[in-house]
Amino acid sequence: MSTPLAPSQGNLRFRQEVADFWQFLQQPDLRRLPGRRTGSGLSSDWWPGLPFGRLFAWACVLWALNFVALGPIAVIAANSGGAAHRIDPAAIPWLTAILWAPLIEEMLFRYGLRRPGQVLWVCPAMLPPLLWGAQGWTLAWVGMVIVLACLPLRRGRIKRTGWKMEWRRYYRWRFPWVYHLSALVFAGVHLSNFRLTDSAYWMLPLLVLPQWSAGLVVGWMRVRRGIGAAMLLHGMFNAGPVLLIFLIMRWTT
Length: 253
Hints:
Layout: H1 14-26, H2 42-46, H3 52-81, E1 84-85, H4 94-109, H5 119-132, H6 136-150, H7 163-189, E2 194-195, H8 204-207, H9 209-225, H10 227-251
């Protein structure tokens, strides 16, 4: 059994957060980190409530994991199976990678981890922005979805009685499956980044190992610190490869 994170512990050190993440992978639960508000209000979910340095430390963990280990495996799998990345290195979509994708993908794949009652309408509502990209009408659409999703939270803690309590207990029981499934689906969607020719089916998961690992970490961040922190970490994670490609293009031209 996992040990509860008591608020009296205060803010955790980074190594304690890493230990909590490792434990979370094995036994996912819906607790927040010490120092986070336990209510269901807007501020507890959307305000990151952690310093930039802590977010940067987690981004460094993801960059190190993917640049050193998982990224090379994905490259080898792509070269072996003839898969080619659709993104042109000479035309990197900066705003899409750093701002739009974190907003849309977090609302689609991880917002519902703490808001399972809103999944049935929030997830379908985020599909048009995902498919059509950043345009005038999709920006307005996303803004409307976020406002509607936040309306139940405007008065603070959500009261759950009767069948809602039973549903919440059932969801807590099934949450480990939901968490890991969300990371797998998030990774699987990123197969669309590749032109797949003769790639064997068993090699396809190797192509999206970086996204899978990022989904696990950002999912933990979403549950423990809120959707705002998850979006920021997602954007920082995407910024690393984009900046690296930009620097390489500058040095080689």
